[in-house]
Amino acid sequence: MSGAAALRKPYRSLRRQREAAEFGLWVFLGSEVMFFAGALTAYAVYRALWAEAFTAAARETSIFYGTLNTAILLTSSLAMAAAAEAARAGLRRMTLRCLGLTIALGLAFLAVKGLEYREDIQKHLVPGNGFALAEPKAQIFFAFYWLLTGVHALHMVIGLGVVATLLVQAWRRRRPLASPAFEAAGLYWHFVDIVWIVLYPLLYLAGRA
């Protein structure tokens, strides 16, 4: 499909439509950044107050699962970037394949996270009665762990839904490859990955240096 087919009202050019889509997404991502910034600031304050407890608690997280998911997400970002560039170049097969790979990697991330959560529950690392660690302040670390990774996983699910929708629409030729939606989805996906890159050293590497 041509670029004209991707143009939507009230825009008079695809360039302006793409700029509006990017601007709108940046505004949305700005609100998401404020949420994570607030949570991470609270984490930093409590970690400064109880550094030893946080360090001891961080050693209980699974470095294997955390590192594996980091590699998966970095690869998924590469696949999503390739999908957006392929769509811009009008390469339909490449776009579909890269979108499919992005979805597969995203599902792999969630599967690994599910295995990690199961292990955490079995090790009694959920704050509350029966918590495995003797240090009470360690429960605060794991409260942040469950909150931050859980919200991140929710964002991943949303991203998967968006990418899957684009894949189906592109496969059925209902969405032109020139649509700004591919680049906007890529921007959101990269944001989710960047959040994980921040969480990884805070939750998995602390105390292991």
Automatic annotation (TrEMBL):
Residues 1-208 form the Heme-copper oxidase subunit III family profile domain. It is a multi-pass membrane protein. It holds the Pfam family COX3. InterPro entries: Cyt_c/ubiquinol_Oxase_su3, Cyt_c_oxidase-like_su3, Cyt_c_oxidase_su3-like_sf, Cyt_c_oxidase_su3_a-hlx. It is found in: Cell membrane; Membrane. The chain crosses the membrane at residues 21-43, 63-84, 96-115, 143-167, 187-206. It comes from the Bacteria. Keywords: Membrane, Transmembrane, Transmembrane helix. PANTHER family: CYTOCHROME C OXIDASE SUBUNIT III, NITRIC OXIDE REDUCTASE SUBUNIT E. Belongs to the cytochrome c oxidase subunit 3 family. This is Cytochrome c oxidase subunit 3.
